[in-house]
Automatic annotation (TrEMBL):
The lineage of its organism: Eukaryota, Metazoa, Ecdysozoa, Arthropoda, Hexapoda. The keyword ATP-binding applies. One of its GO terms (cellular component) is mitochondrial outer membrane. Keywords: ATP-binding, Membrane, Mitochondrion, Mitochondrion outer membrane, Nucleotide-binding, Transmembrane, Transmembrane helix. This is ATPase family AAA domain-containing protein 1. Residues 140-276 form the AAA+ ATPase domain.
């Protein structure tokens, strides 16, 4: 009756209905449906995440760069600096100046160039760090260009400059700025300057800078043109703010291929020439300072023989001469390990002097006497005596001194290699470089 009264009053009924009370089996179906939907959602999420991860081929590289950047920043003691994902990619090329194992003392034959670099770059940077105010014009240059033949020490000078000026050093790899996704190259270019600004004082070093900032042309790719334009725009932004100690430094052996706008921004230009005779003497003297040199070595003669050689060429000559000594040492050890009682002095390599042969020969002769005598079992004793002595001599062998013949042979090898890459030989032996 109550239900009827309520129904007449328009308030419905209090009687239980199928719409209000759900049977127990129906509740289970709803719970199972929710579980199924949740499981499908989770599986779909991980599938989409996996698909997006492998759709971007640079994903793993970015993750590795992020991990490496964190390790570098922690090792270098950089704290309180937050980096975005693009700055993290650039931070993997960061070098602590205190970890650079190079100084001005390790660079020979470039005293005048180093003195000019100190006056133009180093002293203004140090004055700004120490808040020494002499004039508003006393500011470090925002761009430095080192140009000259390859192998003459441009990269060494850049590292020594960063160490002397106590600046962070970003050894920028041009390939880092390229990305398959549209707009990423511009973001990475901006990250170079934003990271350098956070770490200032900082040097951004670009080796072979002509490969990135060469002359602009109408046939340049759109992305490349935009990247160059943004690079120069950000560079100009740094120039207008005298409080930022960020130096863009480039090294090239093709300065004529560079854009004139870039050359204008690199106001401090230093020519690093090929060493002359006196400079080659200084370079060789520094390179061989800790080496054991034979009495027949003639530094003046070697400097004359290496006319036209760069600093890296001279180092290669010294390395090749030292390797020749190592080869002789290995040959001597191999010969002694195969030493027999019938070995004669003429069969030993020239690197083994008569003194070494005389140390072994008495045992060989005494062993022969034993073999001729009684005893029957003397063969085993003879072998043990001989092997014991040979092993002792082999362990005591050491590298001989580097003599003039080693250097002459090394110079000849390098000249032959250079001739095969140039025009000194006939056409069938040449390698076309361009």
């Amino acid at each position: 009756m109550t239900g009827g009264v309520l129904s007449k009053m328009g308030l419905g009924s209090l009687e239980p209905s199928d719409e209000v009370l759900m049977p127990l089996p129906a509740k289970k179906e709803v719970v199972l449906a929710i579980i199924r939907a949740g499981s499908i959602g989770i599986i779909t999420f991980y599938i989409m995440r996996w698909a997006l991860r492998y759709a971007d081929p640079t994903y793993q590289q970015k993750q590795k760069s992020k991990t490496k950047a964190k390790e570098i920043m922690a090792r270098l003691g950089v704290k309180g600096i937050s980096l975005n994902e693009h700055e993290v990619m650039i931070a993997t090329h960061l070098v602590d100046p205190n970890h650079l194992r190079i100084s001005w003392a390790d660079i020979a034959g470039l005293d005048q160039e180093i003195e000019q670099i100190k006056k133009t770059v180093i002293y203004p940077v140090l004055a700004q760090q120490k808040n020494i105010r002499v004039s508003k014009l006393v500011q470090p240059p925002k761009g430095v260009l080192l140009y000259g033949p390859p192998g003459c020490g441009k990269t060494l000078i850049a590292k020594a400059m960063a160490k002397e000026a106590k600046c962070w050093f970003i050894n920028l790899d041009v390939s880092v700025l390229t990305d398959k996704w549209y707009g990423e190259s511009q973001k990475l270019t901006a990250a170079v300057f934003s990271l350098a600004e956070k770490l200032q004082p900082c040097i951004i070093f670009i080796d072979e800078v002509d490969s990135l900032l060469r002359l602009r042309a109408t046939h340049d790719h759109e992305v490349t043109a935009m990247m160059k334009a943004q690079f120069m725009s950000l560079w100009d932004g740094l120039i207008t703010d005298p409080k930022k100690t960020v130096i863009v430094m480039g090294a090239t052996n093709r300065p004529k291929d560079m854009d004139t706008a870039i050359l204008r921004r690199m106001a401090a230009k230093f020519h690093i020439p090929s060493p002359d005779k006196n400079q080659r003497k200084h370079i060789l003297d520094l390179t061989l300072k800790h080496e054991v040199i034979g009495p027949d070595f003639n530094l003046d003669k070697l400097a004359l023989m290496t006319d036209g050689f760069s600093g890296s060429d001279l180092k290669e000559v010294a390395r090749s001469a030292a390797v020749a000594c190592l080869a002789d040492l290995q040959l001597s050890r191999d010969t002694l390990n195969n030493f027999t009682l019938t070995t004669t002095e003429s069969e030993l390599p020239s690197s083994l002097t008569r003194g070494w042969f005389d140390m072994i020969n008495p045992f060989a002769s005494s062993s022969s006497d034993v073999m001729d005598g009684d005893g029957g079992g003397g063969d085993g004793d003879d072998a043990s005596i001989s092997s014991l002595d040979v092993g002792s001599v082999t362990r005591n062998l050491s590298l001989r001194a580097i003599n003039m013949r080693d250097f002459e042979h090394a110079v000849m090898k390098l000249k032959e290699a250079r001739a095969h890459c140039g025009n000194a030989l006939d056409a069938r032996h040449r390698i076309e470089l361009d």
